[in-house]
Amino acid sequence: xxxxxSVERLTEELTRLPGIGPKSAERITHYLMQARAxxxxxxxxxxxxxxxxxxxxxxxxxxxEGTDICQVCQDARRDQSLLCVVEQPRDLMSLEKTxxxxxxxxxxxxxxxPLEGITPDKLTIGPLVDRVRRGTIKxxxxxxxxxxxxxxxxxxxxxxxxxxxxxxxxxxxxxxxGTVLEFANREMLADALSGRQxx
Amino acid sequence: xxxxxTDAFVIRSVDFSETSKVVTLFSRDLGKLSVMAKGARxxxxxxxxxxxxxxxxxxCVRRKTTAExxxxxxxxxxxxxxxLRRNLGALYAGYFIAEVLNGLTGRHDAHPVLYDSSVxxxxxxxxxxxxxxxxxxxxxxxxxxxxxxxxxxxxxxSGAEVGLSERMAYSxxxxxxxxxxxxxxxxxxxxxxxxxVQALRVYSGETEAAERLVPSQRGxxxxxxxxxxxxxxxxxRMPKMVAMLDAS
Lengths: 199, 248
Ligand SMILES: [Zn+2]
Hints:
Chain A is an alpha/beta fold. Chain A folds into two domains: about 5-55, Helicase, Ruva Protein, domain 3 (Orthogonal Bundle); about 70-170, Dna Topoisomerase Vi A Subunit, Chain: A, domain 2, CATH 3.40.1360.10. Chain A is about 45% helix and about 15% strand. Chain A has helices spanning about 5-15, 20-35, 35-55, 70-75, 90-100, 125-135, 150-160, 185-195, and strands at about 55, 65, 80-85, 105, 140, 165-170, 195-199. Chain A has a five-stranded mixed beta sheet with strand order 4-3-5-6-7. The longest helix of chain A is centred in the N-terminal third of the chain and has 17 residues, at about 35-55. By secondary structure, chain B is an alpha+beta fold. Chain B is built from eight helices and eight strands. The longest helix of chain B has 19 residues, at about 215-235. The interface between A and B is medium-sized, with 24 and 33 residues. The complex binds zinc ion. Chain A: May play a role in DNA repair. It seems to be involved in an RecBC-independent recombinational process of DNA repair. It may act with RecF and RecO. Chain A: Pfam families: RecR_HhH, RecR_ZnF, Toprim_4. Chain A: Belongs to the RecR family. Chain A: This is Recombination protein RecR.
């Protein structure tokens, strides 16, 4: 069966998504063609909104909608002297869900993985050092994933921050090493936060 | 179909999707294996923490000769080198080992002696042993096991015997010492101290004497430069980790 150019283009675009193979792409294309126009277009508009409205917070590099400063950084009740470093915005979300952290964040957007070509300059480490240099921050909590690369990233950062008057701590080993933060349950994360240790 | 069991450690791990990653392992009995670890990023996955980079695990795997990936059916953590998590230089040295093993060994090509030596090297690095010397000895072992051992007793070009002297010619391209008569007519030879050649011989011999040897800083630098150039030649490029090792 030969498909129209538009249909082919949609399938091709879907195939580029993570975890979507050609078969799944075809299924989704088929579903979208069957769906009511307004339902299908809702998806298109959601994608458009995300790409036009969502940007990275100027301060912490968390995702922010419509403004240069994210909701966490805008919240005056949060403790600006306590900063938690995470790899990805989804890790920040996991920690926020525990409800037990009142400080602010810094999102690295990755971890130092030299074998994959991810060197420290590819992450938001420069801006992190700038924030610490300003002097408001009293404690930096390393909440990178407890994998070898995550721990390596925390180690690198603690070396860099050793030159500044700031307490560097890390999440307690409530989490099994080698796993990722995103899939840990709420209780484990809350425990890990409260039991954090000096680096 | 029967799975083969072997010990292995992870030399590369690339996230494939939200829950899966492609993991490359250097195994003792089956050589380099690449597997899709489904659910490996989830806490409750059966592979759990076993598949973290440089972790040693016991795995069950079904080798596929037709497909690009082998099938991992079990992975259980045996050993982790926690010292690497506390020392950046040691960690980067560990990454270096992973990089060169991945680059220089072939899929399903077993090198049990090299495997044992690699695990021992990671252990030593984790215990805070001298990084440069540890990597020098690792590279010698690596080159020997892969059939690229430096030729240290005779000329690598003419085959003539080469006696020890204060300054000696070495060709990375030819893979060993070069007789002075040969060296005169060619470019690209490096000059190294006789003491460096002696140290390389002792380390290659892997005897008790190797443990007691304390090479000079110049000797270490010469060995490091020579071995790294040799590894780079076979790899086709300078290992990525070298720049980070130098900086740490
Ligand atoms: Zn922010």
